[in-house]
UniProtKB/TrEMBL annotation:
This is DNA topoisomerase 1. The keyword Metal-binding applies. Residues 826-856 are annotated as: Disordered. It comes from Chryseobacterium oryctis. Belongs to the type IA topoisomerase family. Residues 162-167 are annotated as: Interaction with DNA. Residues 3-112 form the Toprim domain. Its EC number is 5.6.2.1.
Length: 856
C-alpha cells in the first residue's frame, strides 16, 4: 500500500496528478467539500457564530473510504486548490479525517504540471487558518443574510422567495438599468454623411463634423451643398500605436469568451476548470495579471520561433485592484509549445487563452492614422474622413482585433485614397438621416461581470454562481424584447436633386441581455426600500474588503460577524414588524364596463391584472400577463384585452377550437391538442382562418414521415432538439443526420439503436414499487421513483456485475436504498382534511389562462 495519500477535490485533477507521482503515492478525490452547513436549518450558533458542519448523506460512504485510506498511509498530502475555497476543503478534510499536524502536509500549485507538482511536494506548508476563516466568514454571513431575509420576503412579498447578499445587488444593477431605459427620452438630430469622388473616381466616405438639431437646418445644408465646389482643405497623417491587453484574469476571460466565442460565464468556467485539471492552463480563479518569469521566457521563445525577434517585447503587468493577490498568476498556458488540443470545445477556449498570453508579450502594433477635411468656406461645417493603415501588426498577428459591445457601429475606419490639399472633389451623394439618442444598453453576462468587478462586488469564484443563481430564482431572464417601430426622416442629395423620405426604423429590441422579471423588480424594490445598507454597492464592496483583511490575518472573523449582526438583526425585526406588503401594484384605470378599478400586481401565480377590489361584495376577476408584458409598463387597454383570453372559435374537423395563454406562452387548443402560436404573434389577433392555418401546419408537421414495422413514425423539435417518435418512444436525432431529409435506413438505424438501448436499460425492474436496477453511463445504479442510488460493493470489496445483480432480491435492494436514505420508505403524512364551508350564493369565475400540456 502507498505510504503517501494525496487528496484533491476532483477526479479529473486526481487522474492528472497521479500521472506525475510514482508508486509511493495514491491520489484520491474528495469530490469537492466533504462537509458543509446543514441543508435544513441555519446551522449557526448566533451567540458565538460557530458553524455546525455536517457530512452530507451522499458523502458518508466517501468519508468512510477516505478514513480507511488515511489509516494505511504514513503521510496525507492535502492538495486542493490554492484559493480560500480550496483551503477550506483541506481544513474540513483535516478536521473530519482527524489528521494530526505531524501526519499531514498542505501543498498548493498554480498549474498541474510535473514540475509544479514535484516542486510543491518539496515545499509543503500547513493549512492557512486565515484563508479558512475568510471562507467561513463569507459562508456564515451569506447563510445568515439568506436565512433571515428570505422569511421576510415570504411574509411581505410571496412564499418561496429567497434573498442573497451578492445576488440581490446583482439584481439591483439589472433593475436600475431597466428603469433607466424606461425613463429615457430619446432626442433626435440629423447626422450628415457624404460620399465624394477624387479625380480617379475613388470614393471617400466622410461625416459632417456637427449634427443638426432641426430638419430645416439639415435641408438648408443640402440645398447649399448642391452648388458648392468641394475641396480637400487639409490632410493630416499621424503615427500611432496599439498595445496588447494584459493576460486573462477570471473576469476578463469571462468577458472575452462571451464576446468572441458567445460562451456564458458558467460554460466558460466549466471549460476552464477542465483545462486546468487536465494540465493545460494555470489556475482559472484569479484576479492577478502577473506572469512568472518562467512563463515570460516561455512566451518569448515561442514568439521568436513563430513570428521573429521583432515581434517579441517581454513585459509584466501589475494589477490595479488592491485586493488582487500578486503571488497568484494570470490565466495562461502551462506549456507554450502546446498550440492546440484535441477536444474541439476545449480547444476554442484554450486558443483564446494561448493567443491572449502570447499577445501580451508581443510588440505594439504601429498604425498610421489619416484625417482628410473636406468642405468649402461657403458651408457652415466641413466633412471629415478618417482612415488608418497598419504599418506593423505586432501583437495583432497573434490576437487580431475584436469590437466590444460599447464600440460605435459607425466608427469603421477604412483605408483612404491618396489626395492632396486643394484638390477638387465631386460629391456622389450627401445624406442627412434623423438619428435618435439611445439609452444605456442592458447588461450582457460579460457586461454584468465587468460592472460587479468595477464596483468591487464579489470575487473571481463568485461571478458565475451569482449570475446562475439570479436566473434560477427567476428574478431576471434573457427573454427577447420585441422592437418597436418609429418614423425617421431621410433627406438625400444626389445628381443635384433633393429627395425626402419617411422610413420605418426598429428600435428598443434586444436579445440575450438581462431583463428583470416582475417578481425580480418587486423583490428588489422591497429590499432597497427596507434594507438600504445590505443592497448598497459600497457596503457590499466593504464586506469583500473585510474578507480580504481576514484572509491577510488583519481582522478576526467572529468579531467582524458580531459587528455585522448587531446592526443587521434589529433591522430584520423592524421590517418584519412594520413594513407593508409589496405586490408592485399599479392602478391602471377604470374598467368602462363595470366602473371598477383595474390593477396590475404580483399574485400567487405571478404577474397578473385584476378588475375589482378584494373587499368588494363581488369577487375580483383575474388574468395572467403574457410573455413580454410587465407590471411597470402594461397599459389599461392592454390589460382589458387580457380578459378576452381564453376565447372560443368555431369547431374545426369536428373538434373544439380555442385560443389562450399558458405556461409555455400563447396557444391554439384543438380538441385536446395544444399548439404554440408563433413567437411574436399576438394571440388576440388569431381569428378562425388563422387558427385553422396553425392547426393545418401542426397536422402537416405531425404527419408520418415513414413507417417502422408497419407503425407510423413522426418527427418534431422539442426542448432537447430534433426527434422522431415511434409509438410512445421519442428518439433524439444527432447532428450527424440530415434531419430535414431522413432516409428510411436512417430511421431504422435510429429506432433500432434506441430499442436496443431500452432493452438493455433494465437489469431488474419492480414496477409496482417503482424500483429498478438500471445500466447507466458509469455503470449500474438503483432508481427509486425519481431518485437514484449507488450499488454498494460486495463483502470482498469488489463490484457486482450485471449477472449477479439479476439475482439480487427486492428486499436486499430496499436495504441498499435505506442505507443511503433512512427515510426513503417512510410513510408520507396525509394532508389534514379541509373544513367544509357553507356554499356562497354568488360565484365569479376567474379568467386565468389555461396551461397547455408539456411538449416533447
Amino acid at each position: 500500500m502507498s505510504k503517501n495519500l494525496v487528496i484533491v477535490e476532483s477526479p479529473a485533477k486526481a487522474k492528472t496528478i497521479q500521472k506525475y507521482l510514482g508508486k509511493d503515492f495514491e491520489v484520491k478525490s474528495s469530490f469537492g467539500h466533504i462537509r458543509d452547513l446543514p441543508k435544513k436549518g441555519m446551522g449557526i450558533d448566533l451567540a458565538t457564530f460557530s458553524p455546525d458542519y455536517e457530512v452530507s448523506a451522499d458523502k458518508k460512504k466517501l468519508v468512510t473510504e477516505l478514513k480507511a485510506a488515511v489509516k494505511k498511509a504514513d503521510m496525507v498530502w492535502l492538495a486542493s486548490d490554492e484559493d480560500r475555497e480550496g483551503e477550506a476543503i483541506a481544513w474540513h478534510l483535516a478536521e473530519e479525517l482527524k489528521l494530526k499536524p505531524e501526519n499531514r502536509k498542505r501543498i498548493v500549485f498554480h498549474e498541474i504540471t510535473k514540475n509544479a507538482i514535484l516542486k510543491s511536494i518539496e515545499n509543503p506548508r500547513d493549512i492557512d487558518q486565515n484563508l479558512v476563516n475568510a471562507q467561513q466568514a463569507r459562508r456564515v454571513l451569506d447563510r445568515i443574510v439568506g436565512f433571515e431575509m428570505s422569511p421576510v420576503l415570504w411574509k411581505k412579498v410571496k412564499p418561496g422567495l429567497s434573498a442573497g447578499r451578492v445576488q440581490s445587488v446583482a439584481v439591483r444593477l439589472i433593475v436600475e438599468r431597466e428603469k433607466e431605459i424606461r425613463e429615457f427620452v430619446p432626442k433626435a438630430s440629423f447626422k450628415v454623411e457624404g460620399v465624394f469622388l477624387n479625380k480617379t473616381e475613388q470614393e471617400i466616405s466622410a461625416k459632417l463634423k456637427k449634427d443638426f438639431q432641426k430638419e430645416e437646418e439639415a435641408e438648408q445644408f443640402l440645398e447649399l451643398s448642391k452648388t458648392t465646389e468641394f475641396k480637400v482643405l487639409n490632410v493630416e497623417t499621424k503615427p500611432g500605436t496599439r498595445s496588447a491587453s494584459a493576460p486573462f484574469t477570471t473576469s476578463t476571460l469571462q468577458q472575452e469568451a462571451s464576446s468572441r466565442l458567445g460562451y456564458n460565464v458558467t460554460n466558460t468556467m466549466r471549460l476552464a476548470q477542465r483545462l486546468y485539471e487536465e494540465g493545460y492552463i494555470t489556475y482559472m480563479r484569479t484576479d492577478s495579471v502577473n506572469l512568472s518569469q518562467e512563463a515570460i521566457e516561455g512566451a518569448k521563445k515561442q514568439i521568436i520561433s513563430e513570428y521573429g525577434a521583432e515581434y517579441s517585447s517581454p513585459r509584466n503587468y501589475t494589477t490595479k485592484s488592491a485586493s488582487a493577490q500578486e503571488a497568484h498568476e494570470a490565466i495562461r498556458p502551462t506549456d507554450f509549445a502546446v498550440k492546440s488540443i484535441g477536444d474541439a470545445q476545449l480547444n476554442k477556449l484554450y486558443q483564446l487563452i494561448y493567443r491572449r498570453t502570447l499577445a501580451s508579450q508581443m510588440a505594439n502594433a504601429k498604425i498610421e492614422k489619416t484625417v482628410i477635411e473636406i468642405g468649402n468656406s461657403k458651408l457652415p461645417q466641413n466633412f471629415e474622413a478618417q482612415g488608418e493603415v497598419i504599418v506593423f501588426d505586432g501583437f495583432l498577428k497573434a490576437y487580431g482585433i475584436v469590437k466590444t459591445e460599447d464600440d460605435d457601429e459607425e466608427n469603421n475606419e477604412k483605408l483612404l485614397p491618396k489626395v492632396s490639399v486643394g484638390e477638387a472633389l465631386d460629391y456622389k451623394k450627401i445624406i442627412a438621416t434623423e438619428k435618435f439618442t439611445r439609452p444605456s444598453a442592458r447588461y450582457t453576462e460579460a457586461g454584468l461581470v465587468r460592472k460587479l468587478e468595477e464596483l468591487g462586488i464579489g470575487r473571481p469564484s463568485t461571478y458565475a454562481p451569482t449570475i446562475q443563481t439570479i436566473q434560477n430564482r427567476e428574478y431576471v431572464d434573457k427573454r427577447e424584447i420585441e422592437p418597436q417601430i418609429r418614423e425617421v426622416i431621410k433627406i438625400s442629395l444626389a445628381k443635384d436633386k433633393i429627395k425626402k423620405e419617411v422610413l420605418d426604423e426598429k428600435f428598443g429590441g434586444d436579445k440575450n441581455k438581462f431583463v428583470p422579471t416582475d417578481i425580480g423588480e418587486v423583490v428588489n424594490d422591497f429590499l432597497t426600500d427596507n434594507f438600504k445598507e445590505i443592497l448598497d454597492y459600497g457596503f457590499t464592496a466593504r464586506v469583500e474588503e473585510s474578507f480580504d483583511e481576514i484572509a491577510n490575518g488583519d481582522q478576526k472573523w467572529k468579531e467582524m460577524m458580531t459587528s455585522f449582526y448587531s446592526k443587521f438583526h434589529p433591522r430584520i425585526e423592524e421590517v418584519e414588524e412594520n413594513a407593508d406588503r409589496a405586490t408592485g401594484e399599479r392602478l391602471l384605470g377604470v374598467d368602462p364596463q363595470t366602473g371598477k378599478n383595474v390593477h396590475a400586481r404580483i399574485g400567487r401565480f405571478g404577474a397578473m391584472v385584476q378588475i375589482g377590489e378584494a373587499d368588494d361584495e363581488e369577487k375580483p376577476i383575474f388574468a395572467s400577463l403574457m410573455t413580454g408584458q410587465n407590471i411597470a409598463t402594461i397599459t389599461l387597454e392592454e390589460a382589458l384585452e387580457l380578459f378576452r383570453l381564453p376565447f372560443d372559435l368555431k369547431e374545426f374537423d369536428g373538434q373544439a377550437v380555442s385560443v389562450g395563454v399558458g405556461r409555455f406562452g400563447p396557444y391554439v387548443k384543438w380538441g385536446e391538442t395544444f399548439i404554440s402560436i408563433p413567437k411574436g404573434e399576438d394571440p388576440l389577433s388569431v381569428d378562425q382562418a388563422r387558427a385553422e392555418e396553425i392547426i393545418n401546419e401542426k397536422k402537416k408537421a405531425d404527419a408520418p414521415i415513414a413507417t417502422y414495422k408497419g407503425e407510423p413514425v413522426t418527427k418534431g423539435t422539442g426542448r432537447f432538439g430534433p426527434f422522431i417518435k415511434y409509438q410512445s418512444i421519442f428518439v433524439n436525432v444527432p447532428k450527424r443526420y440530415d434531419f430535414d431529409n431522413l432516409s428510411q435506413s436512417d430511421i431504422n438505424e435510429l429506432i433500432d439503436a434506441k430499442l436496443e438501448k431500452e432493452a438493455n436499460r433494465y437489469i431488474q425492474q419492480w414496477e409496482k414499487e417503482k424500483i429498478s436496477i438500471e445500466n447507466g453511463r458509469w455503470g449500474p445504479f438503483i432508481k427509486f421513483g425519481k431518485a437514484m442510488f449507488k450499488i454498494p460493493k460486495k463483502k470482498d470489496d469488489t463490484k457486482y456485475d450485471a449477472e449477479e445483480l439479476k439475482e439480487v432480491s427486492l428486499d436486499e435492494v430496499k436495504k441498499w436504498i435505506t442505507d443511503q436514505d433512512p427515510k426513503a420508505f417512510a410513510e408520507k403524512k396525509k394532508p389534514a382534511a379541509k373544513k367544509s364551508t357553507a356554499k356562497k350564493t354568488t360565484t365569479v369565475k376567474k379568467t386565468v389562462a389555461k396551461k397547455p400540456a408539456a411538449k416533447k
